[in-house]
Amino acid sequence: MAPSALYALLAVAAASVVLAQPDPAAPTPLYDKHYKYPNEIPYQVDPNTAAIRGPQIGYNQCNSTTENQSSLCQTSFINHIDDFCLWAPSKPNSTIGDTEGQEVAWCTKHGHGTRLIPAGALKGVQFIRTPDYIQIAGFIDQTQINIAASDYGGELDPHGADLRGNPLGGLMYSNAFPSTNTDNNSYAQVSDWTNFMGGSAFCAKACDPAGKTPGAFCQNIYDRLGCEYNAPNNAKNGTFEVCEGDNMTPPGIYTSSGHTMTYFQPPESLGPITTVPYTASVPASSNCVTYHSTDLYQSLPTPTGSAATTGKPGSSPSSTRSASAGGAAPTSNGASAVGISSVATIVGVLFAMVFLS
């Protein structure tokens, strides 16, 4: 099947299972709110106090005055391996399930007006640039960004059951897309994105606003299937690398007996997902460049109870290599670790298992 027909099939099928309904008090979906960076961004994207979930807890106008470890900034960025943000709780020892509407941005670089991911918290990161999206995945000491050590997490995205987003009012921007970035400093709003957090691992994907079908690659309807199916990757614990990659097959699309099929996860009311009719494959990648973490992440705050990690000036590659799709470390139900490599940990395997339960 031609790519255009495949994406059209997914779009139509996905539309048929969308059960989300806008809150009458906040009828405009977060997905449909667009603001040029930085001048058009309001103080709060969703200040509606009459809505069922109440107003967003933080703010979207973020600058040097809001950059601290108590920041409630809810404007996020994914630019490159040394400049990205993750959504995580504002209070220690929290779970994603309990706080998905209140997450704040935690970033790797100064200048965004957010909290900063503490030095040494990131244990391995892979950044992939594909024709239609950018993707970042890796391993993290999640306790350093207020996620309880035992939490295997969940998904954040700009939709949610009431279409107000998780987190409420959370915006995302990127300067990584050539079609929208003319001076290496122009930030385009990313309307289609997803971020899975938990199990000492993470993955995040931002789809090119000018791409053919950004909604096909950044689906939000497979939140129970985790990184393996939504953002297949070869992230490795202890490795920091940037690669070029092919587009993945859109989540939910697979081929059986020569026919293109669309899979939809069952509702939670039917119990745990024990089987999925296909195994997601990791797209081929190439031109990978590895880095030292201390070169990438500098001047970050001291981890809780640890000494600060300081880096050397500059970000120089330590080596180059070429990578291709690899085999997953399977579990009993077909899930696999966020880092599907020979060094994937049992924690990563459990991370994927929980999203399949």
What is shown here, in short?
11% of the residues lie in helices and 23% in strands. With 357 residues, the chain is an alpha+beta fold.
Which descriptors apply to this entry?
alpha+beta; 6 helices; globular; six-stranded mixed beta sheet; disordered C terminus; 357 residues; eight-stranded mixed beta sheet; 16 strands; single chain
What can you tell me about this protein's structure?
Residues 300-335 are annotated as: Disordered. This is Macrofage activating glycoprotein. Keywords: Membrane, Signal, Transmembrane, Transmembrane helix. Residues 308-335 have a biased composition (Low complexity). Residues 1-20 form the signal peptide. The protein is α+β, with helices and mostly antiparallel strands and 357 residues long. It has one domain (3-355). The chain has six helices and 16 strands. It has helices spanning 3-15, 96-99, 214-217, 226-230, 293-296, 346-355; strands at 75-80, 83-88, 104-107, 115-116, 122-129, 133-140, 154-156, 171-174, 188-189, 193-198, 201-207, 240-245, 253-256, 259-262, 285-291, 317-321. The strands form three sheets. The chain has an eight-stranded mixed sheet with strand order 7-10-11-6-5-12-15-16. Strand 1 and strand 2 form a beta hairpin. The longest helix is centred in the N-terminal third of the chain and has 13 residues, at 3-15. The chain is globular, with a radius of gyration of 19 Å.
Helix/strand layout:
Layout: H1 3-15, E1 75-80, E2 83-88, H2 96-99, E3 104-107, E4 115-116, E5 122-129, E6 133-140, E7 154-156, E8 171-174, E9 188-189, E10 193-198, E11 201-207, H3 214-217, H4 226-230, E12 240-245, E13 253-256, E14 259-262, E15 285-291, H5 293-296, E16 317-321, H6 346-355
Parallel strand pairs: 1-8, 3-4, 5-12
Antiparallel strand pairs: 1-2, 2-3, 5-6, 6-11, 7-10, 8-9, 10-11, 12-15, 13-14, 15-16
